[in-house]
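Re: Re: token formats

Sure, here are both.
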Amino acid sequence: IINLISFSPLRIPLNFISKIFKNGYRPDIIHIHGLWYDFVRMAFNYGCRCNIPIILSPCGMLQEGALKHSSTKKRIILKSYLLKILKYPKLIIHSKSISEKLQIKHLLPNSNVKVVSNPVEICSKSFLKDDHKNQFIFLGRLHPVKGIGNLIFNWKKIYDKNKTWELLLIGPDSDGYK
């Protein structure tokens, strides 16, 4: 049995992270989702201090389009501590695809990147319609960096050739993009 603690900006409030560390909890692995948040620095500092392996899931935050958004803030974070953190010998960067791995390796050539696809669990299939046999589903956060605009543009070509297919976009809205 492995004790794992997973940090995500949507899951654990920052003050709760401090309490975890102060109360002496020591996981076997730390898993961090994201890059540009205060909890990332806190979790890395704790992991390095305690010599704990760290898995970092950048969640697309190192893609070219994502780096352009709030670029000044991200440059400051990269230079101040993130590049130092990426040299931690017990760090593994989680990539969901080969293309994401190539992007990460281009930006951070010496990084240890492993490709592991994210499993998708759907609790309710109520959004699926029985009267449509052919459905193409995009499942993820609705945001410009996800390429949904390109998907919709190219979907028209598929739909024009075969009207039995349906495109479903399923996911939370991000910054009013929906």
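Second one below.
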Amino acid sequence: MRPAILNPLFADITVLTGVGPKIAALIGRAAGPRVVDLLLTPPIGLIDRSFRPKVADAPEGRIVTLEVTVDRHEPGPKGRRAPYKVICSDETGFLTLVFFHARADYLAKQLPEGERRLVSGKVEEFKGARQMTHPDYIADPEKPGDMPLHEAVYPLTAGLSAAVMRKASAQAVARAPSLDEWQEPTWIAKHHWPTWKDAIETVHAPQRQEDLSLMAPARQRVAFDELLANQLALALIRKARVKTRGRAIKGDGKRIAIAKKALPFSLTGSQTEALKE
């Protein structure tokens, strides 16, 4: 019944890179065991990293992306559980990046002194100074693609990280084939719906909060297709069952006669009629 072009979508999620049995079990709890289940599990939130103020203008508690110069590293005293600090700045002020249980060699490579870096996370005020604890991203301004400006937030379960879920969902979207349009053209035009594949890609790549709305055209299209496909499948099953003839069972009465003879009483008129029926 299923077209061969859809078979990759109904494969087990272990076909995705980085998804072994353990991760598959976690994703199965959050979305389902098949690739198509990931496709039909839309994001529930959005992290927007496109806001890029200067250090002095960065509002406290909001996710921002700042371009700063790495001034110096300040490792904590040896033998003490002090945080590792990296002092950065732009033309408007200073920003301290704070790391706990840090690896100095890793941070020296990620944040070389004298170089410009993009850092993204929430800015906080601490003792009159601005700081960012464990930035979500650190990227080279010459490679802005290393830090996505918009991140979809998916439903998770205990032990399943947001990064793993995003990576698996992205692979599922990449496996989505281009399908011939199966909706009536005037119906599509009336609702301003994209193609099925474009709708899937848009649903999993929200750029603003409005894209998460159930009334967004892409989400409407995917939901309608899912509902219609389900109803068509049920209709085909019903049609196949109607065509199947039942098996008539007719006896010669011998076993009934033996059973009636074995009874210590005679059947009433109503009991006899019930047996005939």
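The two ends are 40 Å apart (CA to CA). Residues 60 and 123 are 5 Å apart (CA to CA).
- S.
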